[in-house]
Amino acid sequence: MIDIGSHRNKKADRRRNSFHLVFVPKYRHKVFKKLEKRLMMKEFLNAIAKKYGMKMPALEVAPDHVHLFVELPMNTSVGQAIRLLKSLSAKCMFNAFPGFRKHYPKGHFWNGYAYYESIGKVTASKVEKYIKESQTKHFT
Predict the structure, then answer these.
(1) Where would you tag: which of 9, 13, 77, 140 has the fewest CB atoms within 10 A of its CB?
(2) Does the residue 9 lie in any domain?
(3) CATH number of 100's domain
(4) Distance, CA of 54 to CA of 81 (rounded, Å)
(5) Residue range 86-108, pLDDT digits in tens
(6) How many independent structural domains does the chain possess?
């Protein structure tokens, strides 16, 4: 008889909860032109991800959008992750840069739309490469 509770009979969990996300500021303002703001946004997003158990193999900030490659915990949906990342990063940006209130008087920093695409194991390296290498075109 096989012991169902035995750890030897359990296979390693091979499920992936990985997504390529793109966030755009409202009105597509080029708010991340300055290096300081790009670095702060990266710092904020990394801190939020770490706090909620997400992993970010790739993160790039262009002048008018942000690309993220995120691996979510199994108990977190993509909708929850987007809501957390967008709301908390917006709050951090408004606190760090009070001048943002001039561009966004109602307090809505991010566009209501977010692009997301599920990533399989085969394409994960391609997405990571795209995010890390192809975003330099925005600064030329």
Answers:
(1) 140
(2) no
(3) 3.30.70.1290
(4) 9
(5) 999 999 999 999 988 888 888 89
(6) 1
